[in-house]
Design goal:
The protein is elongated. The chain has a two-stranded antiparallel ribbon with strand order 1-2. It has one domain: Fumarate Reductase Cytochrome B subunit, CATH 1.20.950. A hairpin with a 3-residue loop joins strand 1 and strand 2. Helix 1 packs antiparallel against helix 2, helix 2 crosses helix 3 and helix 3 runs antiparallel to helix 4. The protein is mainly α and 179 residues long. The protein has four helices and two strands.
Length: 179
């Protein structure tokens, strides 16, 4: 294991921000596309959303593996309750990083719409085609995505609170740039 420093490693920082952009973009596209009529644009957005989800899943697994192999910086001093919320919310974020794309993949498979990443890499169906199962998985995927969005908003608010109110430089530990 690496020894902790005052900053996260460069790969951890890169994965954090790349996943943040992909997740926020995927949430926004997911909200937008569901309100569109069935048009070529909607179909393109659904494909982009599914591709993004598959990339989010792969990068999340990579990020989890990196995190397990590399010790993060020591936490900044904060009250015990904040430390507990920090730990629980990060565990929940990692779980949702994986659960949301898996639920989407399962829904797509159950609905009979195969996942072909970037239009060239067909992934196996996650579950068999089953309209009743799809009817259960669609709202599950949506609920998990909303939970991820809400928890992401809490994560952003907490980071800003530490930066702007506590002034403990917590945000600097995850910012790209020189060490």
């Amino acid at each position: 294991m690496n020894t902790p420093t005052d900053r996260y490693t460069t790969p951890a920082i890169a994965l954090h921000w790349l996943l943040a952009l992909l997740i926020l973009g995927s949430l926004a596209v997911g909200l937008y596309m569901t309100g569109l009529a069935l048009t070529p644009t909607r179909l393109k957005l659904y494909n982009w959303h599914k591709w993004a989800g598959s990339v989010i899943l792969a990068l999340s697994l990579l990020r989890l593996a990196w995190r397990l192999a590399h010790r993060p910086p020591a936490p900044v001093p904060m009250p015990a309750w904040q430390t507990r919320v920090f730990v629980l919310s990060h565990h929940a974020l990692y779980a949702l990083f994986i659960a949301v794309p898996l639920a989407g993949w399962a829904y797509s498979s159950a609905a009979g719409f195969p996942l072909v990443v970037f239009g060239v890499l067909p992934l196996p169906d996650f579950v068999p085609v089953d309209r009743d199962l799809a009817a259960v998985l669609k709202p599950l995927h949506k609920a998990l995505a909303w939970a991820l969005g809400a928890l992401s908003a809490l994560h952003i608010a907490a980071a800003l609170k530490h930066q702007l109110i506590d002034r403990d430089h917590l945000l600097r530990r995850m910012m790209p740039g020189r060490r």
